[in-house]
Automatic annotation (TrEMBL):
Residues 1-10, 70-84 have a biased composition (Basic and acidic residues). It comes from the Eukaryota. It comes from Cuerna arida. Residues 1-20, 70-95 are annotated as: Disordered. The lineage of its organism: Eukaryota, Metazoa, Ecdysozoa, Arthropoda, Hexapoda. This is Uncharacterized protein.
């Protein structure tokens, strides 16, 4: 059986009943693909192979069944107009945060900052001296970072309760930048 790609949409059922593996295309329209659209002159998006349509229909069916099961289990309604998004961060693990008073081993919660556009040749000791002169009682860590340009950059860790104090612009030299440090996801907590 030959398939004419210019067929009207009312003949769509005849094409779906055809079990051949031919390259027949069917006009789906905006109702089946609400996110598609664009220039009216371009008709290439209107034609989809039977296999692609069956795959799309099976995905819709599976998602609809999952949403119906979720609605039965919970009192709140799940939105049915969008697909559930995958968790990009992987599974969340339960983290235990200690609250005991042991002085033997105790972690320090730190806020990490990136100090950038520092004059070439500046050392960790120079940055440490600047912070000590402005905040004599503050506990901090300074690490020099490998920079790609002419300027130097540093990673500064301060006590989390003092993070607002270190963000005062009057403390830092002119044209030096200070912002929150973003850790790469591939780093382990030990490297932080």
């Amino acid at each position: 059986r030959n398939c004419n790609p210019d067929r009207e949409t009312n003949q769509e059922s005849e094409v779906m009943e055809d079990n051949n593996t031919s390259d027949c295309s069917v006009f789906l329209g905006f109702d089946d693909f609400p996110t598609l659209g664009g220039a009216e002159d371009d008709d290439s998006w209107k034609r989809v192979s039977k296999a692609a349509k069956k795959n799309y229909a099976s995905i819709l069916k599976v998602n609809k069944e999952n949403i119906q099961e979720a609605n039965k289990d919970s009192k709140t309604k799940v939105k049915t107009d969008k697909y559930p998004r995958p968790n990009r961060n992987g599974t969340r693990r339960n983290v235990l945060i200690g609250t005991g008073d042991s002085k033997l081993i105790q972690g320090v919660k730190r806020a990490w900052f990136h100090l950038g556009k520092v004059k070439n040749g500046t050392t960790e000791e120079g940055v440490s001296g600047l912070i000590k002169s402005n905040f004599p009682d503050m506990d901090f860590v300074v690490e020099k970072l490998e920079s790609k340009g002419w300027n130097e950059s540093f990673k500064i860790g301060v006590d989390f309760t003092k993070k607002d104090e270190i963000l005062q612009s009057s403390m830092w030299p002119k044209n030096v930048t200070l912002k929150r440090f973003l850790f790469l996801r591939r780093e382990t907590p030990i490297q932080r």
